[in-house]
Specification:
The chain contains 10 helices and 11 strands. The chain is of the alpha/beta class and 283 residues long. The N and C termini lie far apart (60 Å).
């Protein structure tokens, strides 16, 4: 059995160019297997579909509330509702349920691997994914929003059962204890890791990817504003992610012609950031 299993959950967003970076910078260098967990109406003609070693498909769901009603108490729904407007209700209700689906149906497969790379379809990898050893949970730095970034994690399979049990956690939360907290996906994620005593196992690592989007990709939360210059079909959902991903490598590497789009986009976003700060000063 291989050392790594990459698990992608959610809607297949990001497009073929994004998924090409998954193959080139993650699956091939790590010799990793790929599992995709999504609705069974996925486009089966894509390279992504053909790359998958495991197809964990389920019927299309229009109402994710019913998943919680069937599997948990009303308390879980109340906790999620508490984060309405901050993304917890809009997207967390789905992300957490997907973790629960993977946990309840495929734990035996996960346990066959040493490390689980739990991620999303829309991660555009700017460089080769690092390999790891040890009993930790590795999470890229940045975009924590008062908690911990929940878009990508490398989890020692020793911890994967507890890691995926976030629905069980939110079902147990006493709302009186979190009334004064800003509840979004990231803060709940951090509270969950603290609750299962894994927060001390978290190691923050330099970023090597950013969240991408195609123009017509459906989104329940953040709408991307900026595009990769010269590749305007690829949009950047979180500019700070992109900037950090570029800054974490020798910048001279990005001046090679093949990476010129990264360089120009980086300089453009940095200029906008500086102009924005000057505008605040003079206003």
């Amino acid at each position: 059995m291989k050392n790594y299993l990459v698990v992608l959950t959610g809607l297949p967003r990001g497009g073929e160019k994004t998924w090409t970076t998954l193959k080139k910078n993650v699956l091939e260098p790590l010799d990793a297997d790929l599992a995709i967990c999504t609705e069974n109406n996925i486009d089966k003609s894509t390279n992504l579909y053909s790359m998958a070693d495991y197809l964990w498909l389920f019927d299309e769901k229009d109402d994710w509330i019913s998943y919680y009603k069937s599997n948990y108490s009303d308390n879980a729904i109340k906790v999620l509702k508490q984060g309405e407007g901050a993304g917890l209700w809009e997207s967390g209700i789905i992300h957490f349920a997907l973790k629960d689906i993977v946990l309840k149906n495929y734990l035996d497969i996960l346990k066959k691997y040493n490390y689980i790379i739990y991620s999303r379809f829309d991660q555009f990898y700017t460089d080769i994914h690092p390999s790891f050893s040890g009993e930790f949970i590795w999470i890229p730095k940045g975009d924590d929003y008062f908690g911990i970034n929940d878009r990508h994690a490398i989890v020692n399979s020793k911890f994967i059962k507890d890691y995926l049990g976030i629905c069980k956690y939110i079902d147990s939360i006493n709302l009186k204890n979190v009334d004064n907290l800003y509840l979004n996906c990231e803060t709940i994620y951090k509270l969950h890791l603290e609750n299962i005593n894994l927060i001390d196992k978290v190691v923050r690592i330099n970023r090597f990817q950013f969240t991408s989007s195609l123009k017509d990709d459906f989104t329940r939360w953040r709408i991307p504003k900026y595009s990769l210059i010269f590749k305007n079909k690829i949009k950047i959902k979180y500019p700070d992610e992109f900037l950090n991903a570029v800054e974490n490598f020798a910048f001279i590497e990005y001046f090679r012609l093949k990476n010129f789009d990264f360089v120009i986009t980086y300089l453009y976003l940095k200029l906008r950031t500086k102009l924005g700060k000057l505008k605040k000063i003079f206003n």
